[in-house]
């Protein structure tokens, strides 16, 4: 199987403009993501999809392959689909440009799962172990079938435990999973992306993966023990710098 990792990078994020170029321990955030990706896959199989000359130039400066894409793309998936004719591979992995600490093991797990599953898309999940996480609308939750296939994604707490009014006890009643926004797509999924209708669920939850579920695509999951976090705000950047310092001091 020919695998390509795509790293969509948007310059002007609404919550934290230019975050992908912000310094993280002496390197741009985007470079940290790229270097993490090439630690497990060949450099020529990793490409950065940029929307501006600033991101393009920065990526070239640290040695990354680059593809220019329209500034108007509203999601990483749309950005990849817009440049698909320039992207090699029959299995394409989407890692956002603001995820410098993603679990590298999920790349191999998604590729391995795609060889035994008939699903169209693959994505990592992890068990939630705190009530604060259950109630955090910024932490996306997912419910799974017995076979690990995603049934629904939501910013709300799912499943809802009807017979227990005390939410602090919900973790004893069910397994709760968080979702990590990394995706592995079969190429044909992205080839058909522009034909997919954006539905009311995606519009309500503001979760792009719901477009695929609403259009009948199957999403399989792989479990990771290491939830990552993206850099969406300056506060997240401070957390990332602290994490990087801890990692480097323990190396």
What topology emerges from the helices and strands here?
Blueprint lengths: L2 E7 L13 E2 L2 E2 H10 L7 E5 L2 H9 L4 E3 L7 H7 L8 E4 L10 H12 L4 E7 L3 H5 L5 E4 L5 E5 L22 E3 L3 E4 H5 L8 H6 L3 H6 L4 E5 L10 H17 L1
Parallel strand pairs: 1-4, 1-6, 4-5, 7-12
Antiparallel strand pairs: 2-3, 6-11, 7-10, 7-11, 8-9, 8-10
Structural overview:
This protein is of the alpha/beta class. It has one domain: Spore Coat Polysaccharide Biosynthesis Protein SpsA, Chain A (Alpha-Beta Complex). The chain is 31% helix and 20% strand. The protein has helices spanning 29-38, 53-61, 76-82, 105-116, 131-135, 187-191, 200-205, 209-214, 234-250, and strands spanning 3-9, 23-24, 27-28, 46-50, 66-68, 91-94, 121-127, 141-144, 150-154, 177-179, 183-186, 219-223. The strands form 2 sheets. Strands 1, 4, 5, 6, 7, 8, 9, 10, 11 and 12 form a 10-stranded mixed β-sheet that branches. A hairpin with a 5-residue loop joins β8 (141-144) and β9 (150-154). The chain is globular.
